[in-house]
Specification:
Four copies of one chain form a homotetramer. Chain A has about 350 residues and is of the alpha/beta class. The first copy, chain A, is built from 15 helices and 13 strands. The radius of gyration of chain A is 20 Å and the shape is globular.
Chain lengths: ~350, ~350, ~350, ~350
């Protein structure tokens, strides 16, 4: 059986594994205050071309989201996001458990616009009874989104400008950031992202690491006391160097980009095969997640050989399902999947 | 200037005021453990024809909502309600501040259906990744709703049956309950409501009292330790007897019904006048709130003489606004308002 | 039976009742935005000789405490107070329910010192692992304290200076403030309190009102968005004018001072009687609460005639109990109590 | 420089590393639902001789503590623990951030007694105003404690009996459990611990793993929906198999015991050296943490060669400091440390 249901089915990229092995017996201080973390932070700052950035390493995405959002908001404030946003749907209410409302904005493709942000601002300021409503204070986007789509540089710039205008923080969830930056239709760099958000994170878990997300903060207010929040929310890893070592390696010699390009290239290959079979998409995108609409009968036939994840029912006989590639996807498995698709 | 923007513009019904005056110098124990509260609880139990009900008096509606919901839910659980539900829109995230997600269901008229409840249940159980989503555990409805509509007895029975089937609590916010029960198209009694919910409250603030909501609990699990939650959330009134005295008087000699009938009768009079002028409604209802669509030009003309509340923009030249009657509305003011409407 | 167990056994001072009656049928806007509230705010600002103060009216003490503290602290911050502080002992964890640690400081008499505040600061800054501990950010004191003691002006000034030095907010719970200011050994005015705290409140519930606490904020940071917190925590009274009317009357013509002086004078009379009987105190003080140590046998004898509240066991045959006087205490009841004490 | 300040200075035990390497390229499902996790769960159940236990793997100790405690308590409930308990001191208010009061009990040696638990119960039930206080519902202990002491089997049995009597859950934090079980004065097995608690965890981070704590639940009520809490609090590791692989290896062929015995043997060697030098202890214990009182002058001399952690000031010229051994401590480093101690 070959698995395509997600981008975290395997362990870690061999180059990173090598470093974990070679450093295993060294003694370092804990909690991310070691030299590996310091070096990885520097490399990220350099990639973002901003030496003033604060960089913190967390273990996973939900942890990163809840910690950043809780650190940013006072009790009466909420966070705007697409209704399909990960924090709104798939984190078991992690943000609400910290006391904050997730304020969903309509979205068909997983993205939101500067106009929607301004409208939300106006809806909460023009109304004379605004004290009776949650005060939006942060905008959460993901890039790529949960539907695999990406923001253009202009879209991000407009969003950030709208946020500045409204007094909102802009937070970009980059759990799959590498795959977004490697997409054929992408026009942004990591530097662009650092320059057009208040805080974002560089996903490691889905892009080559065993685990780990690097939270990058440019907003001065958000930098203050951030380590307290990490500790309070259970995210301070005792052997913090594990995160530093992994991110140091990811940032070195273009590994992060190389890993991402590999996944995208295989996704494009797979996309070609789906299209050759005449399948259409739930949402069109060119990152490492493919949301394809298939007949239930076909899915029934292939499910003992191929792992995919169920997304949603489309009509009585069709469903949308997700196939993912990753840094670890083997070309031979892609070819096997294509052969299976051609056969059925 | 005459005010119709809400149903809490005045003080308290004269009969209740009389009792507050006559008992003022008595000494009683605090925190709702006095005899007035005990007597009021008994009267409510009798009106609901259920001697096993737990009854607690709280000061206001947001306080009642957040206390009931927090007492009912564990951290990973959420509450389903209409998107227009008061807890979703106008309580500054009070429920989220207690850690719980408010899960909005689509609704045009402020009501939700048994089918929507079952669908929500299925969407969170059939999906294999349900642990990644908030677990719904309570259904919140208001009757009348925030749009002045009411549930029929059959609708409530079906909702309650659906809740039982799904293992959800049903909670009815009755901030304006009296006006719902007095509506010409209502077919329920307070007994029906007690028998078809796990917990509900009888609104006092908007129906003749200075303040006060009587939370009525039939579900045994919800009864446990409820006073701890009241105290923790700041709702335990030191001079608790003030609530007992008010509810005792409201429940006595049909005062609650008399008050409600008065407001409904004047609302119907007003409705007749709006219809005579050819106005249409945002939502049609027959309780004490009238959501009428009017030309902005007309609103501009009358606003210095009449208080109303702005609801929403309808088109470029029309808005929906709200006019309320209450126990305290004077017939002469209704006639003045009608005269103004006819004049403009 | 005559009740001395607390200072909220009765209703409201007759002068205030008079105003509630005479204004009952007026129409005003809700939520504390009416003219009565505005006028009461002005009177409080004038009494504190500071026109820049923000004043908000809340219904009760626990509500005031949790709202102020939650509005002041970010998630990783806590509040320092005496171990006997009301927020640490008798509010069912209201502050923790908002996510904040109450950090108890040793205290024999209910008071804490500037030195303790500085020590707490040092203990959390000198330690290299401070990110692993809650960050103190506010100091909560009550005046009079839960044990009836009061701060001298110098003590308060020193505390406030220490807070400024450490970057802490100083919050004074004045649930019984009037009785503190009227105590024979007091050397402060309300102006002194406003000038030496960041936020405090003037208790109404226990000093003549039906209910109500006036939160007075001098710190600019704390003023921001405070009404959102009131609403979110369930403290925004629909008929907010009830609070305005009561505080306007309390602040007028020295009523607050007159009420307080009455209670203190009767407490002093009672203290004389206890001392004449040779009883000693758990804690010595001269406000309206008397914590006297009495033989259990005596308490057993008087308990059917007199209400008092049990404080704590002192030894095998003695307990400390509390007797309170209030604005409403009748001289004849004090004399009856003294007669009973002399008899047993 | 040789580090003794904590037991998480190094990476992972070589046998576990081997397994991580050999399984690295395998494809498995995520979130702990893979076969490695399943197998590790079974091995833990077997070691505890109870096939009904629920076992969940979390990344770190603070995360485990906050998740277990939040899953166990309703909003009005708190957790009892020694004042020195990790949750009370060194988790930045993680438990309070979930809304629950940590109720500290006096303790000189890091342990609490059955009698203290019963007293806490009585203090909250006998008092008539118990609704005004947090309701204790869980008892948290650590074994070894934060001061390196351990409970005897009889002490644990008595604590558990007291908890059952009072209706409290008993939760044992076993972050260093292996070292406790390997101590010369220990008389318990892991089976004893499973049989005398409602929930406990087996620490991996400090006992040979890269990271990981195995939460073991025997109480049926606590088992329900536990994975929701893990996800909500950010503790659900995407590549969950990393935890399964590590715990499978730890539980295999006595590795956990072997690792622990190694650390204890070196700690005993070190203890002998400290005693030979005439040093005394802050608290006496025989686990892997040594809390020794040393002259500041000596500490000053050795600090450039040896890492230790500062515990507290003892008198003007002495401090208590901590030296730890672990699975990874090298005998040669212990000898070097001893040589340094003899030299100064």
């Amino acid at each position: 059986m070959i698995l395509f249901q997600c981008d975290y089915n395997e362990g870690v990229h061999p180059r990173i594994l090598e470093r974990l092995i070679s450093t295993n017996e060294e003694q370092t201080v804990g909690y991310g205050e070691d030299e590996y973390c310091e070096k990885a932070r520097d490399m990220i700052r350099r990639k973002c071309k901003d030496s003033s950035l604060a960089v913190h390493f967390l273990v996973g995405g939900t942890q990163a989201n809840l910690t950043v959002i809780d650190a940013a908001l006072r009790s009466h404030q909420g966070v705007l996001c697409a209704v399909s946003g990960h924090i709104n749907v798939h984190e078991t209410g992690a943000v609400e458990a910290c006391g904050h409302k997730v304020m969903g904005l309509a979205s068909g493709d997983g993205k939101i616009t500067a106009m929607q942000v301004k409208d939300a601002y106006n809806a909460h300021v023009e109304d004379s009874s605004f004290e009776h409503m949650v005060q939006p204070k942060m905008v959460y986007i993901s890039n790529p989104t949960e539907l695999g789509t990406i923001y253009s540089k202009q879209e991000l710039q407009e969003l950030y400008a709208a946020c500045k205008e409204c007094g909102f923080y802009l937070f970009l969830d980059g759990a799959r950031l590498g795959y977004g930056l490697a997409a054929p239709d992408n026009d942004m760099t990591m530097e662009d992202i650092a320059a057009n958000t208040d805080v974002f994170y560089i996903g490691g878990t889905k892009v080559g690491a065993l685990f780990g997300e690097a939270v990058v903060i440019s907003n001065e207010t958000l930098k203050k006391d951030f380590r307290y929040f990490i500790k309070q929310r259970g995210g301070m890893l005792a052997k913090g160097r594990l995160l530093g070592i992994q991110f140091e390696e990811l940032m070195k010699d273009g590994l992060y980009e190389e890993i991402s390009a590999h996944a995208i290239s295989l996704a494009e290959r797979l996309r070609g095969a789906f299209e050759a079979q005449g399948y259409s998409y739930l949402v069109k995108n060119r990152t490492n997640q493919i949301f394809v609409i298939m007949p239930d009968a076909v899915l029934e036939k292939i499910k003992s050989e191929v792992g995919f994840s169920y997304q949603q029912r489309v009509d009585e006989t069709h469903s949308a399902v997700r196939f993912c590639t990753s840094w670890a996807t083997k070309e031979e498995n892609v070819e096997r999947l294509i052969a299976i698709l051609e056969r059925v």
